[in-house]
Amino acid sequence: ELVERLAREHAVLITVEEGSVGGFGSLVMQHLAWTGLLETGLKLRPMCLPDRYIDHNSPVKQYDEAGLNAPQIVAAALAAMGEANARPARAG
Which of 5, 51, 47 is CA-nearest to residue 24? Predict the structure, then answer.
């Protein structure tokens, strides 16, 4: 219910998780597709851990390397909204 409300009331929806592709973001996308909410122009950006090894380090450094820190999330949101200078970091 919350995800559907967020999708109806916002132009951009971003999921952020410590899992990999196929997790929470994928379930959200599947649910939004089933309910027809992806047909409304909603921009969806799933953010998750990249499918590669990340060296053991402090959580802050690991999130930086994975592309899941606050500035990278903000950049993804701004890019999804069409901000010309925003460049979301893509981990990969």
Answer: 47
Q: What's the predicted TM-score (pTM) here?
A: 0.77
Indicate the residue type of 51: D
Beta-bridge mates of residue 14: 45
Find out if CATH 3.30.390.50 is the number for domain 2-80: no
Q: What is the mean pLDDT of residues 64-70?
A: 91
Residue environment code for 1-21, b if the CB has 16+ CB neighbours within 10 A, otherwise e: eeeeeebeeeebbbbbbeeee
Domain coordinates of the chain in residue numbers? 2-80
Residue pLDDT, tens place only, 4-33: 999 999 999 999 988 778 889 999 999 999
Count of C-beta atoms within a 10 Å radius of residue 41:
6
